[in-house]
Write a structure and sequence with these properties.
alpha/beta; two-stranded parallel sheet; single chain
Length: about 240
Protein backbone atom coordinates (compact mmCIF):
# COMPACT_ATOMS: atom_id res chain seq x y z
CA UNK A 1 0.00 0.00 0.00
CA UNK A 2 1.24 3.48 -0.86
CA UNK A 3 0.91 6.12 1.84
CA UNK A 4 0.97 9.92 1.61
CA UNK A 5 3.06 10.21 4.74
CA UNK A 6 4.11 8.73 8.04
CA UNK A 7 4.08 9.89 11.65
CA UNK A 8 7.30 9.33 13.60
CA UNK A 9 6.29 8.65 17.20
CA UNK A 10 8.42 7.67 20.17
CA UNK A 11 8.15 5.47 23.21
CA UNK A 12 9.36 8.45 25.22
CA UNK A 13 11.09 11.80 24.87
CA UNK A 14 14.73 11.86 23.80
CA UNK A 15 14.63 8.48 22.02
CA UNK A 16 15.81 9.89 18.68
CA UNK A 17 12.62 10.75 16.78
CA UNK A 18 14.19 13.79 15.13
CA UNK A 19 17.25 11.85 14.01
CA UNK A 20 15.12 9.06 12.55
CA UNK A 21 12.70 11.51 10.91
CA UNK A 22 15.59 13.46 9.36
CA UNK A 23 17.31 10.27 8.15
CA UNK A 24 14.05 9.07 6.61
CA UNK A 25 13.39 12.42 4.93
CA UNK A 26 16.89 12.52 3.41
CA UNK A 27 16.67 8.87 2.35
CA UNK A 28 13.43 9.56 0.49
CA UNK A 29 14.90 12.74 -1.02
CA UNK A 30 17.90 10.76 -2.27
CA UNK A 31 15.47 8.28 -3.86
CA UNK A 32 13.88 11.12 -5.82
CA UNK A 33 10.78 11.49 -3.64
CA UNK A 34 9.41 15.01 -3.15
CA UNK A 35 9.29 14.94 0.64
CA UNK A 36 7.84 17.47 3.06
CA UNK A 37 8.47 17.61 6.81
CA UNK A 38 6.48 18.79 9.79
CA UNK A 39 6.92 19.12 13.55
CA UNK A 40 3.47 20.42 14.54
CA UNK A 41 4.37 21.40 18.11
CA UNK A 42 7.85 21.95 19.52
CA UNK A 43 8.79 23.01 23.03
CA UNK A 44 12.14 24.13 24.40
CA UNK A 45 12.68 26.51 21.48
CA UNK A 46 15.54 28.98 21.80
CA UNK A 47 15.06 32.71 21.34
CA UNK A 48 16.81 34.08 18.26
CA UNK A 49 17.01 37.57 16.72
CA UNK A 50 13.81 36.97 14.75
CA UNK A 51 11.88 35.04 17.40
CA UNK A 52 11.81 31.47 18.65
CA UNK A 53 13.94 28.92 16.81
CA UNK A 54 12.50 25.43 16.45
CA UNK A 55 15.71 23.40 16.50
CA UNK A 56 14.09 20.05 15.64
CA UNK A 57 12.20 21.46 12.69
CA UNK A 58 15.32 23.33 11.48
CA UNK A 59 17.09 19.95 11.45
CA UNK A 60 14.22 18.41 9.46
CA UNK A 61 14.26 21.35 7.04
CA UNK A 62 17.96 20.74 6.37
CA UNK A 63 17.33 17.04 5.85
CA UNK A 64 14.51 17.54 3.36
CA UNK A 65 16.01 20.62 1.63
CA UNK A 66 12.55 22.14 1.86
CA UNK A 67 11.70 25.78 1.31
CA UNK A 68 8.28 25.58 2.92
CA UNK A 69 7.16 28.32 5.29
CA UNK A 70 8.43 27.58 8.79
CA UNK A 71 5.10 28.49 10.37
CA UNK A 72 3.52 25.67 8.38
CA UNK A 73 6.22 23.19 9.36
CA UNK A 74 5.91 24.11 13.04
CA UNK A 75 2.63 25.94 13.68
CA UNK A 76 3.33 26.06 17.41
CA UNK A 77 6.83 26.86 18.69
CA UNK A 78 6.98 27.20 22.46
CA UNK A 79 9.83 28.35 24.69
CA UNK A 80 9.43 26.31 27.89
CA UNK A 81 11.12 22.89 27.83
CA UNK A 82 8.09 21.08 29.26
CA UNK A 83 5.11 19.16 27.87
CA UNK A 84 3.29 21.13 25.14
CA UNK A 85 0.16 21.58 27.26
CA UNK A 86 2.22 23.09 30.09
CA UNK A 87 4.26 25.31 27.77
CA UNK A 88 1.11 26.56 26.04
CA UNK A 89 -0.53 27.40 29.36
CA UNK A 90 2.60 29.16 30.65
CA UNK A 91 2.89 31.24 27.48
CA UNK A 92 -0.82 31.96 27.03
CA UNK A 93 -1.05 30.09 23.75
CA UNK A 94 -4.20 28.30 22.62
CA UNK A 95 -3.33 25.29 20.46
CA UNK A 96 -6.06 24.81 17.86
CA UNK A 97 -6.39 21.39 16.25
CA UNK A 98 -7.89 22.75 13.04
CA UNK A 99 -4.93 25.09 12.57
CA UNK A 100 -2.50 22.17 12.77
CA UNK A 101 -4.62 20.16 10.32
CA UNK A 102 -4.86 23.07 7.87
CA UNK A 103 -1.08 23.55 8.01
CA UNK A 104 -0.52 19.85 7.39
CA UNK A 105 -2.94 19.72 4.44
CA UNK A 106 -1.21 22.70 2.84
CA UNK A 107 2.13 20.90 3.10
CA UNK A 108 0.66 17.58 1.96
CA UNK A 109 -0.72 19.23 -1.18
CA UNK A 110 2.77 20.46 -2.05
CA UNK A 111 4.61 17.19 -1.61
CA UNK A 112 4.51 13.58 -2.68
CA UNK A 113 5.18 12.29 0.85
CA UNK A 114 5.15 13.79 4.35
CA UNK A 115 7.33 12.93 7.36
CA UNK A 116 5.70 14.24 10.54
CA UNK A 117 7.45 14.10 13.90
CA UNK A 118 5.63 14.02 17.21
CA UNK A 119 6.51 15.35 20.65
CA UNK A 120 7.45 12.80 23.31
CA UNK A 121 5.33 9.66 23.56
CA UNK A 122 1.82 8.87 22.34
CA UNK A 123 0.08 10.05 25.50
CA UNK A 124 1.86 13.38 25.83
CA UNK A 125 -0.86 16.05 26.13
CA UNK A 126 -0.55 18.71 23.46
CA UNK A 127 -3.39 20.90 24.72
CA UNK A 128 -5.90 20.08 27.44
CA UNK A 129 -7.13 16.55 26.54
CA UNK A 130 -5.72 16.59 23.01
CA UNK A 131 -2.90 14.03 22.99
CA UNK A 132 -0.19 13.14 20.47
CA UNK A 133 -2.24 10.03 19.65
CA UNK A 134 -5.22 12.30 18.86
CA UNK A 135 -2.99 14.33 16.55
CA UNK A 136 -2.03 11.17 14.65
CA UNK A 137 -5.70 10.30 14.23
CA UNK A 138 -6.42 13.85 13.08
CA UNK A 139 -3.76 13.65 10.37
CA UNK A 140 -4.82 10.10 9.41
CA UNK A 141 -1.24 8.86 9.20
CA UNK A 142 0.32 5.45 9.87
CA UNK A 143 2.96 5.29 12.59
CA UNK A 144 6.59 4.27 12.83
CA UNK A 145 7.59 3.95 16.47
CA UNK A 146 11.10 4.89 17.57
CA UNK A 147 12.36 3.07 20.66
CA UNK A 148 15.50 3.28 22.74
CA UNK A 149 17.81 0.25 22.86
CA UNK A 150 18.32 0.09 26.63
CA UNK A 151 16.98 -2.42 29.13
CA UNK A 152 13.31 -1.59 29.70
CA UNK A 153 12.50 -0.88 26.08
CA UNK A 154 10.38 -4.03 25.79
CA UNK A 155 7.89 -2.65 28.28
CA UNK A 156 7.85 0.88 26.81
CA UNK A 157 7.54 -0.42 23.26
CA UNK A 158 4.80 -2.96 23.93
CA UNK A 159 2.78 -0.45 25.93
CA UNK A 160 3.05 2.10 23.11
CA UNK A 161 2.20 -0.41 20.40
CA UNK A 162 -0.77 -1.91 22.25
CA UNK A 163 -2.19 1.49 23.11
CA UNK A 164 -1.80 2.68 19.51
CA UNK A 165 -3.54 -0.41 18.19
CA UNK A 166 -6.31 -0.15 20.81
CA UNK A 167 -7.40 3.23 19.42
CA UNK A 168 -7.11 2.15 15.79
CA UNK A 169 -3.73 3.56 14.82
CA UNK A 170 -1.85 1.62 12.16
CA UNK A 171 1.68 0.89 13.37
CA UNK A 172 3.85 0.07 10.36
CA UNK A 173 6.78 -1.04 12.48
CA UNK A 174 9.33 0.04 15.05
CA UNK A 175 12.94 1.21 14.86
CA UNK A 176 15.61 0.96 17.54
CA UNK A 177 17.78 4.07 17.70
CA UNK A 178 21.26 3.10 18.91
CA UNK A 179 22.91 5.47 21.42
CA UNK A 180 26.41 4.05 21.31
CA UNK A 181 28.54 1.54 19.42
CA UNK A 182 28.40 -1.17 22.11
CA UNK A 183 25.41 -3.45 21.70
CA UNK A 184 24.58 -5.42 24.84
CA UNK A 185 22.82 -8.79 24.97
CA UNK A 186 19.52 -7.20 26.06
CA UNK A 187 19.70 -4.84 23.09
CA UNK A 188 20.19 -7.75 20.69
CA UNK A 189 17.22 -9.72 22.01
CA UNK A 190 14.74 -6.91 22.70
CA UNK A 191 13.67 -6.25 19.08
CA UNK A 192 12.96 -9.94 18.52
CA UNK A 193 10.86 -10.16 21.68
CA UNK A 194 8.93 -6.96 20.85
CA UNK A 195 8.22 -8.18 17.32
CA UNK A 196 7.09 -11.63 18.48
CA UNK A 197 4.82 -10.33 21.24
CA UNK A 198 3.29 -7.43 19.30
CA UNK A 199 3.16 -8.78 15.76
CA UNK A 200 4.55 -5.43 14.60
CA UNK A 201 7.59 -5.67 12.30
CA UNK A 202 11.04 -4.65 13.50
CA UNK A 203 12.19 -2.34 10.71
CA UNK A 204 15.81 -2.25 11.85
CA UNK A 205 18.24 -0.50 14.11
CA UNK A 206 19.68 2.89 13.28
CA UNK A 207 23.40 2.74 14.09
CA UNK A 208 25.06 5.22 16.40
CA UNK A 209 26.80 8.11 14.65
CA UNK A 210 29.01 10.56 16.53
CA UNK A 211 27.16 13.81 17.11
CA UNK A 212 30.29 15.91 16.66
CA UNK A 213 29.73 15.86 12.90
CA UNK A 214 28.28 18.91 11.17
CA UNK A 215 24.53 18.70 10.52
CA UNK A 216 24.80 18.04 6.78
CA UNK A 217 27.45 15.34 7.19
CA UNK A 218 25.51 13.74 10.04
CA UNK A 219 22.25 13.74 8.08
CA UNK A 220 23.77 12.31 4.92
CA UNK A 221 25.71 9.63 6.78
CA UNK A 222 22.57 8.73 8.73
CA UNK A 223 20.56 8.50 5.51
CA UNK A 224 23.09 6.20 3.86
CA UNK A 225 23.06 3.81 6.80
CA UNK A 226 19.29 4.19 7.12
CA UNK A 227 18.70 3.16 3.52
CA UNK A 228 20.96 0.14 3.96
CA UNK A 229 19.65 -1.13 7.29
CA UNK A 230 16.01 0.00 7.64
CA UNK A 231 13.18 -1.77 5.82
CA UNK A 232 11.25 0.94 3.97
CA UNK A 233 8.99 -1.28 1.87
CA UNK A 234 6.19 -0.70 4.36
CA UNK A 235 5.91 2.93 3.18
CA UNK A 236 5.15 1.99 -0.41
CA UNK A 237 7.58 4.60 -1.80
Amino acid sequence: MRYKGVFIAGTDTGVGKTIVAAALARTLLNKGVDVGVMKPVETGCAMGPKGLISTDSEFLIKAAHTKDIKNLITPYALKAAVAPCEAAEMEGVEIIEEYILDSYLQLQNRHEFMVVEGAGGLLVPIYRRFMVSDLIQLLELPVILVARPDLGTINHSLLSIRYAQSIGLHVLGFIINRRNEDIKIAEEKSPIIIENLSGVPFLGGKPYIEDSLLDEEFIEKSAVLFSQLIKLDCLGV
